[in-house]
Specification:
Helices cover about 30% and strands about 35% of the residues. The protein is an alpha+beta fold. It folds into 2 domains: about 60 residues, Orthogonal Bundle (Arc Repressor Mutant, subunit A), CATH 1.10.10.10; about 160 residues, Chorismate lyase (3-Layer(aba) Sandwich). α1 crosses α3, α2 crosses α3 and α6 crosses α7. The mean pLDDT is about 90. This is Phosphonates metabolism transcriptional regulator PhnF.
Length: about 240
């Protein structure tokens, strides 16, 4: 949108609200595509002939309505509909995202080898001290960060997992390359918490923002635990769907 837009300063309607309504109408009419970044506050302020504080108030109101999404350090974006995320025996991020006409991708944030403590040993059914790969990943849909996941897998079973994931960007393919052709979800536990500093930076959300936490155990075709994962998802970007048996 270019050029200066006229406001009716004698209408008895607050200027920020007029700007909000104009932007809302443009979003509804397709003037801004879903997921696209809104112009900078300074550009919008120049367009309407107001100060940035007035624009900021209009944007805050649209964000509160769910029409806009503020990503820390990246800007303000036109919000897409929440990703419908089914939780069942076959939960695959790439398949879920692709099935909703979005483009999935994954990025390796970090990895290390650590010994299994009591909790991890219980989840993976391995002896205490067993060397595990700890894999931290960021999963994205249409360039929007959706989930940060931390996974633990027995190193001896998938020794090349880190390199394979870094190359292909999906756990399913990385496991396939390691000789594990299929796996299924044995259980999922869902809770919520406030985002921590590191995850807030990766997800592009403010501190204090809620995240959905999904703790899950995946098993191989023989029913042997393969992967324990703790996923944190931006609460306003996904909608969990729990399917009945």
């Amino acid at each position: 949108m270019t050029g200066q837009s006229k406001l009716d300063r004698a209408a008895g309607i607050a200027v920020w609200r007029q700007i909000m309504e104009m932007l809302k109408g443009e979003i509804a009419a397709g003037g801004y595509e879903k997921g696209s970044r809104l112009p900078p506050e300074s550009e919008i302020a120049s367009r309407f002939g107001v100060n940035r504080h007035t624009v900021r108030r209009a944007i805050a109101a649209l964000t509160a309505e769910g029409l806009l999404r503020a990503d820390q350090g990246r800007g303000t974006f036109v919000a897409s509909a929440p990703l419908s995320y089914p939780i069942n025996a076959r939960t695959r991020f790439s398949e879920i995202v692709s099935g909703q006409d979005r483009s999935p991708s994954g990025r390796l944030i970090g990895s290390e080898i650590e010994d299994a403590d009591a909790l991890l040993a219980q989840h993976l059914e391995v002896p205490l001290g067993t060397p595990l790969i700890r894999l931290k990943t960021l999963r994205v849909a249409d360039s929007v960060p959706m989930m940060v996941g931390t996974s633990w897998l027995e190193q001896a079973r998938v020794p090349n997992l880190v390199a394979d994931y870094a190359e292909c960007g999906t756990i399913t393919e990385a496991l396939r390359r390691g000789g594990i052709k299929d796996y299924s979800r044995r259980e999922s536990r869902i809770s919520a918490e406030l985002v921590d500093t590191e995850d807030a930076q990766q997800l592009g959300i403010a501190l204090g923002h809620p995240v959905v936490v999904i703790e899950s155990v995946n098993v191989d075709p023989d029913g042997r635990p393969l992967q324990y994962t703790r996923t944190r998802a931006a609460a306003d970007r996904i909608q969990l769907v729990v399917n009945g048996e």
